[in-house]
Structure formats: C-alpha cells, structure tokens
Amino acid sequence: MAAASGLALSIDLDAVPHVGERMAAITAGDDYELLFAAPPGTPIPVEATCIGCFSQGDGLSLFDASGPVALPEWLGYSHG
C-alpha cells in the first residue's frame, strides 16, 4: 500500500493484533484483517485499530515501545 502510494510507512508492532509470535503477524501471509488508511482525525465507522502511519518518503519502518525494530529478512508474500 505504501509503495503504491509513494509514501513511507511506520508500523507500531505493539499495536498489531496477533495471536502467537508477533513477527508472524506481519510476515505469515495468513492475515484476515482489512487494511485501510484514513487521514488523522477521520471518524472511522467500524471498529478499527491504528497500527501505524504514512509519511512523505519511502520504505517501511517498524517500532515498538523499546524503539526501532529491524526489518525481518522475509516480509511475506508479495502480491505485486
């Protein structure tokens, strides 16, 4: 989504809903959550969890309460 939009994306790993190992939630490919983006402050008409934000630039960065988290070697299936 970020690459297609020409933006950078930061994901808060502590906010990503998951069962089991945290990194599997972002790399396994068996995700059954709807991913969408909305401008800050936009009322969302469904239950939703904010897991990150877009910004000018490119690339993906991960972080948690401890600070930056290194990207895993494999980020999952590419639909590209």
Structural notes for this entry:
The protein contains 2 helices and 4 strands, in the order H-E-H-E-E-E. The mean pLDDT is 84. The protein has a 4-stranded mixed β-sheet with strand order 2-1-3-4, with no helix packed on it. It is α+β, with helices and mostly antiparallel strands. The termini are close together. It is globular and about 35 Å long.
Task: Describe the structure in brief.
With 80 residues, this protein is of the alpha+beta class.
Write the layout of secondary structure elements.
Blueprint: H1 2-5, E1 8-12, H2 22-27, E2 52-55, E3 60-64, E4 67-69
Whole-angstrom Rg:
13 Å
Low-confidence stretches: none
Compute the number of strand runs.
4
Described by strand count, sense and barrel closure, the largest sheet is: 4 strands, mixed
Number of helices: 2
Helix fraction bin = 10-25%
Distance between termini? 10 Å
Structural class: alpha+beta
Give the H and E element order: HEHEEE
Q: Strand portion, in percent? A: 15-25%
- Please state the overall shape, judged from the principal axes of the Cα atoms: globular
- What is the typical, i.e. mean, pLDDT? 84
Strand order of the largest sheet: 2-1-3-4
